[in-house]
Input
Amino acid sequence: MRKLVTALFVLLFLQLSQTTFAQERTITGTVLSDDNTPIVGASVLIKGKTSGTQTDPDGKFTITASPGDILVISAVGFTTFDVKVGNSSTISTTLQRAEGELGEVVVTALGIKKERKALGYSVSDLDAKELMKNKNTNVINSLAGKVPGVNITQFSGAAGAGASITIRGGNSTSEGRQNQPLFVVDGIIYDNSTSVTGNTGTDGLSRSNTTYSNRIMDINPEDIQSLSVLKGAAAAALYGSRAADGVVIITTKQGQEGRVSVNVNSKVSTSWANKLPEVQTEFGPGVYSSNGVLNDITYDSWGQKIPSDSTIYDNIGNFFQHGIVYDNNVNVSGGSKNGSFYLSGSNFKQTGIIPGTDYDKTTFRFNGEQKYGRLTLNANAAYSIANTDRTLTTAGLYGGGGNGAMGGVYSWPQTFNMKNYINLDGTQYRKFEGTIDLENDKDNPYWIVNEDDLTSKTNRFTGGVNGNFKIADWWDITGRLGYDQYNTNDYTYIAPGSAVIPLYQSGRLSKDRIGYSYIVTTLMSNFHKSFGDFDTHLMLGTTAENTEITSQNYWGYNFVTAGTISFNNIGNENKFFTDGTTRKRLVGAYGEFGVSYKDLIYLTATGRNDWSSTLPIENRSYFYPSLSGSFVFSQLLTNNHILSFGKIRASWAQVGKDANPYATNTYVWAPYTIDGYTLVGNQWSAGNPILKPEIQDAWEVGGEFKFLNGRIGLDYTYYHSQTKNQIGQPRLAQSGGFIFSTLNSGTVINKGMEIAITGKPIVKKDFSWDAMLNFSYNKGSLGAFIPGIAYFYPTDAQFGTVRAASIPNGGAFLAMIGRRVMHEVDKDGNEIANGRYKVDPTTGLYLLSSTANDQPVGNREPDFIAGFSNTFQYKKFTLSFLLDIRKGGDVYNGTEFALVTNGLSKKTLLNDRQSVTVNGVNSVTGEDFTQTYEADQSYTIGSTTYSGQAMIQNYWANYAQNSYNFITSVNWVKLRSLSLTYDFTSMLHNQKVIKGISATAVGTNLATWTNYKGMDPEVSAAGGTGGSGSTGIDYLGVPAVASFTFGVNLTF
Amino acid sequence: MKNLKYIIIGCVLVISFASCKKWLDVNTDPDNPNNQSVLIQNRLPWIEHFYMYSAGVANYRTACQAGVYYAIAAAQNTFSTTWQCSNANSTTPYQTWFVAVSSNVIDMYNKAEKQGAYHYMAAADVYHALGFMQMLDIYGEMPYTEAATGNPSPKPDDGKTIYNGCMAKLNEAISLFSKTQEAGAPALSAGDYMNNGDVSKWIKLCWGLKARYMLKLSKKSDLYNADSILYCLSQGPQSNADNTVVPGFNNSTVTDFLIQDPVVTNGNFNYAAYGSNQRISQYYYNLLTNMRGSGVTDPRMSKIVPAAMSNVKLDANHHVASYTWNRSIGVDSYGPSTRLLKGGATSITTATYATANKDIKYTIADATDLANFIASITAAGKTFVVDGNNVTVTYPAGSIYINNTNYVRAGDTVYVNLRSSALATSGNPDQPPTDVSWYPSIDAFNAGVVGSTGSFQVRPVSDQEILTYHEMCFIKAEVYMRQGDAGNAYTAYMAGIQANLDMMQTKLNEWQGAGYTATNPDMAPMNPDDISAYLLSDAVCQSAGTLTMSDIMLQKYVAMGCSIENWNDMRRFDFSAGDVGSFGVVYPGYQRGPLFTGQTQLTGGSPTDPRYWMRRWALPPTYEINYNSINTLALNPHAIDPNIWSMPVWWDCATDDEYYGFLK
Output
């Protein structure tokens, strides 16, 4: 203490003695950050002197200096900036945010803030400004292209559609297993599931036939202060069982000490389908039978040439409309020395590109903090209401005509006016009324969107209370109580007169309710102590989580009195309901010990033990450790201006993952009654009483390098992970007695690389250019699987002739299995890879592989993905754009498959449908086979005579069965966003009320350069199912959208 | 003070860990019982129901193959018409057996064993045999010893193993049924809605099934044993009272979890008469109207072949005032196929009801067709106008007609579909449970205009025939015929015909009593005089000396109708090849028709080549072969060959060498 006092005196004396010699002036200034917000507490020092000051809450400072002095302006998290004092008495400075700079602090597991240089693993973080550059109401979509190793797949372009995010590939193949990271908002696990309510039998809903949201969409992106992505197992290990797929940590905004500030922003945007499938308009409806007879009772377009005087309807183009979004946000924040608050409200109202669809989200949030001596309490609460008005999209209802709105739009013959969907008496207009039974007919898409009603409403409350008590300066205790709760109400109404089985033709209604509640309590004790050059910390903690999901489904059919759509208007004998309760509990105990030496070497070890309710009692406890370290070698290089910072890092970790609730038993269906007897039987999923936890083993190495004082930065990571005893519920041979069985089986291996390069090529007073290039690839593969199983089918993502699958014993995790044409064989009977096609002489067409012998036809995993973002600032203008790049990765164009099948594909116009030629080798004799089928000839094959028209149609049916005709290894460069902002604040001379005003114009997905021929290749049929999922399969989806947004931001 | 903090924290930790164990015990679903706790008396009716479901689809689709039915739906049309056998047929019988039934059979057996409920164990054995033998009949090879226990990749077994396993189960069932159950075990009647707990009937069922299965070995000189079959028959059903049938009901709209079909109705109905796609084929129709070239109409014909109303006149209230019955004819798939050749294999069109007068203009370019068309509508008494190539026909309100401008289809009202309505399928709440006729629309129902009267075996309220006395008689006739004992064969043949007529008459009387005949005369009893006349007519062989194997098998065919046994029998006689024993052509007229396109599936060049005919089905391509490909192909590398459809199953081969030769 005495030493300190002496030092202060010395400093004071020196300062006094020096200042006496200068021609001093009082200089006032403002320090702003690069987003034009004032920087509070920035330090302003005069170079070579000891005098200095700090900025106030408005970013203003006053200092006494002499001309020629150099002011060194610095703030935590920003690049230090030097300003020479000239003749002016005011100085305004903008500091650039530093990335990966020395002393930068990032949020890590359990909300623990750490210096980036201390980390032994890779963490990417994004701030509010970066996220808002292309604001999307689904925050996941704003991550696309920005974080290496993160893959985003949008479910569709429908209003309210969700998106999926995977980090470093998926670890579980099975559909019911989550591959998406854990989301943690202000320390509380935040559910991001995509709840598929209902059931294909009772209300026709499955993933593939309507729009589903993922629940992270309930967060208002404007509330987010920062977002950290913990990619590897080591980073996430402390979060335990639910973190095996990485963690996204979101920190919401807090009030700042100082005056109250009000921020209002409004945006309006318009969106449109960025690409629609093209269809032929030359041939009308009809199909030829084998002997050439034309059947015109069909929606297929294999018929006669459309007469030139016929009206052609652009049914696809007319169907989609421009979508509109109104997005309004307001927030108020402020604070004092001991407390702060942040309060926000928002409304996002979107109409979709499909008529009658919309998405409406309203959010409220309160965050507050208060200090009482050694105790700091903070609380946050958020409430959101999200409503989606959606439509049946692809597959229809069981027992119906099998189409949804999209299935209808993409198949409607171009000579039928699709807009003509209703009769004067309100019944459905049906082209083939009387010839095709209603239950075998197709619903008109306009009927579906106008008469049926499908909505989903979710109300969600999340909140948490944190208390931190400093027992000593080296010991504090944190307690946390978190709560996440939502109710989803889905409503599905099928109008009377729809193309469904007769039982439901008088209308059908179903309501599904899901109630999710999650309570977590956490207690952590932190110790921190230095011993000489060694700095140590120890954390011990325990957590208990309780999740309960209740679900109810009510459904019924046959409204007695027309016009009243209610269960009350349905007889008791036609009303049904089911009930479900899912409970899951987990207790974890964990610890972390870290030691560092002189800012040079950092080592951290963690361990966690979980007890999960979902596993058999003897297997429910499992422990997993991690070890990580970093070595800041640049500390040893003195005054190196080229390499200003250098660090290498390495980590190894295990993470355990438990099962889904109730997977240990086989359950039975609800009973039926026949003739007074009660019937009970097994469900189609087999449980497993001997399940073990799934364990992921992962390691990564990497480094961070800064060159030229941070003007250029490089971050590199290589990782490898292996998930053993994978828990799954695969589809298996039905001879096993079940459709699905829960098993521990096989391993999933992921390895890959991530590179991020940052640069500031130009840093001038009026003009600056920031650029960031990231690049990553992941190779996912499946290890040994159940003996006897050649392909693993995780999901129902089976469209056209392909199925999503993973290939055991080293095959691709994201493979596609499909049908194909057989090639000629060599002398030894082996197929020649690029040989000629075999022709089956009994059909006169190419010989297809048996559907039972489907083989891998593609790998949906990209070779690499990359993002390139640039921000240019010229005076008050800020221009930024983001390119999203992908190389490779197969996409199956199932939409084109459907168009070829129904005769609407432009491909089928080959030779004006007058001839097709089959060219290959005879599959029986091996001789050359060339045959042209002419429309006006007939052909005898075997003992059957076919008309040429039938053969041409058969040729295309055969063509459609060859998966390779629809698979493309897709490359793209997308202009993901382009935004221009102008800051008008300086025009507000002496304005007392308005403190800031800016306007922004943003375009998203304005351009896509790709070799893919279909709609937008960024697709995932069936709403991105879990497991290895349906990414890369394009099947009759709602087209992706492009949009243009204009917004104004006001600060008071 | 500081120590107190430690103590408090310590206590909290200790308490929380102690209570933790119990707190975690929440992994049992509170809403659904699990398979350990289900009562066997609730399992058995489940098994009885869902086996019937599997048998229903197997019966219907194999009946399409056997020439009983014609189907419009693409997949089944490949069985009834083109013989270009489609994989799309393969999944349902397999799934309904393996997923809906098989694991329940094992769970019921194991639980019954613990309770000493021998009769339930025996019932499990019977269903084991019924189910797996049906799978063997259809698919030839599939997992058997490793099946139905949740094994993720069960290895398949060959046909011989499955056959012997099923026979062993029947033997065990016979001995278990003969035992007295342990005290406390639930009575069989508590869970048996098929035989109401009648153990002697179950035992007869076991013997009857043994006879049926032993007959399958008729091609095998070393295993076929006539005496054994006759012994089994002597222990099996001795009269219609011993028939085992699953009753069908029309008293609920509940549909099942698997396929959303009605739960209480007959299993055949759910496939053969649920929708509008099925018709009687001409092959079956001819046997009912011209057996043995007699020109005699079978009294069963109007009970099996449906009719629709025609020449309907409506009264002022739009209710039917007068009409005639239009009895269907069969769809000609194997003969000249004139109609199908004009429109294509699946082109038969379903009729519509005219709520108001309806004009349809047909354009007929071909002069002969035009003349023929005008002649036909003139003969039918239709109102029409001719203008060059155009003929405009007026269908008066109340007509059942074809709503299509293609003149080729205009006459398709002669093919009445097999459809019946159930409460769970009609979509018409006003249609009472005692009216199972099909009406083309609600307007037609309100007018009282019937679109189809349905067919005896495939109505919602029909009995699902598991094993009948008439089948026993025909088996006996065949066995004696093979022994050269025409006298006994003839007696059994006549008894079989009589038994089937009696069984039908009993059911028809029952339906009449229940009120079904108020709107549906085809559900009323047959005229006893017609029965007597028929039995004395040329349609029935009148002496042992002139009895042929074909007489026996064709009468069996008529009686069995919607049953997999017809296709099984046809395979044993190589269909119409005429190369089995000295029996000649047993199924004359059953042949590839002009719309045949099945060269890839049926690769045999001539009728005597086994591979000329439909002899099995491909395994479900996705749910079995693809999901279990390594094991499947290890046993039968040809499982994925397109011509697997013509590969004989084990019992369809004369020797094991022949069978294993196919599997090589």
